[in-house]
Specification:
This protein has about 325 residues and is mainly α. The chain is about 60% helix and about 0% strand.
Length: about 325
């Protein structure tokens, strides 16, 4: 018996009855020889961790566009915090941590530059619409590895596709990531907002602080424990009604005080305008895109509008601004 088979046997013995076991995966679109060291979900996690889209997240906005400070979250640090929260919950519930981690690390691979402002821009101008969770699946199925995709298991792709609030993941591991994503962004966005001076602890109603905790750390601890206590030995991941409503109340405070705050979003309209202009430019000039994207149109028959969205959503904030400057901002006359 090789190392992978030993690990699969341990999963059978140690994981809870409702957990996803690696040997029971619904498989990949293209059959592959099994690794003798890693399980299927470990391989998926590693493929995501090493892909180009994962590295680009370090230069993509989470909430604050071009923040003046070193400690504000970006899309990559958000992803890592989701993974940490989800793995803590999964370990306590005896779920498959490798599957949880793969879904968490891959859930935002398709996110645009400039956060949800960029997503709204592409959704508004692209006739077929744009959603980052669908794009994340497209990244792992179509765009990575020069069009070959990462060939991930069905369970990982299902978890990525369904991580949004209205999603319905097929595995408990996917359900853990779906809740962990919401907990993570409410937690760390509130922490960043306090750092930016947009909100203070006094802006949180005392009833919520008594129930959840008086600091962001205490509230995170409350959410994690509530999920564990209400999901132990159950066939569904859930929070108690009281704590879930409190999470939604915190989320509402964040929308009112931070997400829609002019001070935090003062540059959003510029970002939306920039992406809109770039979309229209590349529709008219697809030859200006990188060669791999142009080949998707000319050789693989992919719809031009979708490929332009692929190109733009894959950009980092800085690369997007550089491209806009290169195309639309006159350069100073150079005399030699």
């Amino acid at each position: 018996m090789n190392i992978r088979e030993n690990m699969e046997e341990r999963e059978t013995l140690l994981l809870c009855p409702y957990a996803s076991r690696s040997r029971d995966t619904r498989g990949r679109d293209r059959a592959e020889e099994e690794c003798d060291v890693r399980t299927a979900y470990q391989r998926d996690r590693d493929r995501i961790l090493h892909c180009k889209a994962f590295r680009r997240m370090k230069d993509k906005t989470q909430v604050f566009l071009a923040p003046q400070g070193d400690h504000y979250r970006n899309r990559l640090t958000h992803t890592l915090e989701v993974s940490q929260i989800a793995r803590t919950i999964a370990r306590a519930l005896r779920l498959n941590e490798d599957l949880v981690e793969a879904i968490a690390l891959g859930h935002d691979l398709g996110h645009t530059p400039f956060g949800h402002a960029g997503e709204r821009a592409l959704n508004a101008i692209h006739p077929e619409g744009f959603a980052h969770y669908i794009q994340s699946v497209r990244v792992v199925e179509v765009l990575e590895k020069n069009g070959a995709g990462l060939n991930l298991t069905w369970e990982v792709r299902d978890g990525i596709r369904n991580h949004r609030t209205s999603g319905s993941p097929s595995t408990l591991e996917g359900q853990v990531v779906r809740l962990s994503d919401k907990i993570a962004y409410v937690h760390h966005d509130m922490d960043d907002a306090q750092r930016a001076g947009l909100i203070t602890e006094d802006d949180i109603p005392i009833t919520l602080r008594i129930l959840l905790g008086y600091t962001t750390r205490e509230r995170l601890n409350t959410f994690v424990h509530d999920i564990i206590e209400n999901s132990m030995d159950q066939d569904q991941i859930r929070m108690s009604d009281e704590i879930h409503q409190a999470l939604m109340d915190l989320r509402s405070i964040m929308f009112r005080s931070v997400y829609n705050n002019p001070a935090a979003k003062k540059e959003e309209e510029k970002a939306i305008k920039m992406l809109t202009e770039l979309y229209e430019y590349y529709i008219d000039h697809p030859e200006a895109m990188s060669a791999e994207y142009l080949e998707m149109i000319t050789w693989r028959g992919q719809p031009k509008g979708q490929v332009v969205c692929d190109y733009l959503s894959g950009m980092t904030d800085q690369y997007c601004m550089n491209k806009f400057r290169e195309i639309y901002i006159p350069r100073a006359w150079e005399v030699y």
